[in-house]
Amino acid sequence: MRPSSRTLRAAAWGTVAAGIAAPLLRRRLRLPVLAVTVASGAAPFALCVALPRTRTRDVATCVLQMWAYVAHYEMPNDDPERLRARVHVHYPVRVDRVLGLGELPGVRLQRWFGRPGPLNRGEQVLVWCHWLWFLIPHGTVLYFLLCRRERFERAALHTYAVFDLGLIGYWAVPTAPPWYAAQQGAAPELRRMMFDHGEAFWKDRWGPMYGLLGGNPLAAMPSLHFATSVMAARLLAEEGRGHGAVGWTYAGTLGFALVYLGEHYLIDLLVGLGLAEGVRRAAGPAAPFLRSVGRGVQALERAARG
Q1: If you write DSSP's letter for every residue of the chain in order, what string do you get?
Q2: 115, 132, 185, 247: most buried, per Cβ within 10 A?
Q3: pTM for this prediction
Q4: 60 pLDDT exceeds 90?
Q5: What are phi and psi of 176, to 5 degrees?
Q6: Distance (Å, rounded) from C-alpha 104 to C-alpha 200?
Q7: Which of 177, 272, 265 is nearest to 230 (CA)?
Q8: Spans of all domains in the chain
Q9: Which pLDDT tens digit goes with each residue over 68-78?
Q10: Lowest-confidence segment of 143-152, 202-211, 254-263 by average pLDDT
């Protein structure tokens, strides 16, 4: 192996290491946001230079992509007081009251189907539908990797573009979910059912679990739960009616659950839907640029192998 190849590979692995370390150390070292963005954003590309293409590398690349996403999802909440001072509470309440013809859709649904006290069986199913979301977008990408390799890149690009573009809303216009508005008195009649069931089902484990997974509780607009589920349904529908039925059934059930459980406003879902559809429509115009980036990464990969 030529020295230049060794140097290139060493630089690539160093970039991967920096991309992993920067989100971990950002608070302790008080790293600037730009430094974390550059380091974590470069890591997936660097891994593609450091290693030849395999399914394992594809999985690791997606993991690094989501590692960068999680860091940027959580960073606004690194200073909770500043985030609470910036968060928007009232505008989605006003918009949803218009959409609900004078009443919040979540409140209306809870009045129609809910009851005081422990959650009924249907409500528990909705809570689990919400919790299972963590598996859906990534599981869809994994399906394409294992079963339809030729369509994996497209599925991954569409899915993770939705995640990344959704961050713009979380940073630019941090928006509180309905349950937070209820705590602040803006929608006092709304009940947060997921939290009630979490405490009842997981008991002492619920607090640590929620603390681990709820890295930024004031990031509701757009709903990436719904946006990524819609994208998964879109991708699966291209595989056939059966695949599409599974994807759309889950997306529709999740959308109902998010509003009913007090996790999202209807307007959050509508903007999430628009985001997913916007990514699909932008895929064609963006294709030449993405191919150019891909060719550049492949050239560096060949140079690194010598």
Answers
A1: --HHHHHHHHHHHHHHHHHHHHHHHHHHHT--HHHHHHHHHHHHHHHHHHS---HHHHHHHHHHHHHHHHHHHHGGGGSHHHHHHH-B-SHHHHHHHHHTTTS-HHHHHHHHH--SSS--HHHHHHHHHHHGGGGHHHHHHHHHHHH-GGGHHHHHHHHHHHHHHHHHHHHHS-B--HHHHHHTTSSTT---HHHHHHHHHHGGGHHHHHHHH-S-TT--SS-HHHHHHHHHHHHHHTT-HHHHHHHHHHHHHHHHHHHHTTS--HHHHHHHHHHHHHHHHHHHHHHHHHHHHHHHHHHHHHHHH-
A2: 247
A3: 0.92
A4: yes
A5: -80, 145
A6: 26
A7: 272
A8: 1-78, 79-286
A9: 999 999 999 99
A10: 202-211
Per residue, what are the HEC states of 234-303? HHHHCCCHHHHHHHHHHHHHHHHHHHHCCCCCHHHHHHHHHHHHHHHHHHHHHHHHHHHHHHHHHHHHHH
pLDDT (tens digit, 9 = 90+) per residue, 226-276? 999 999 999 999 999 999 999 999 999 999 999 999 999 999 999 999 999
Residue type, 215: G
Give per-residue pLDDT as tens, 80-131: 999 999 999 999 999 999 999 999 999 999 988 877 778 888 989 999 999 9
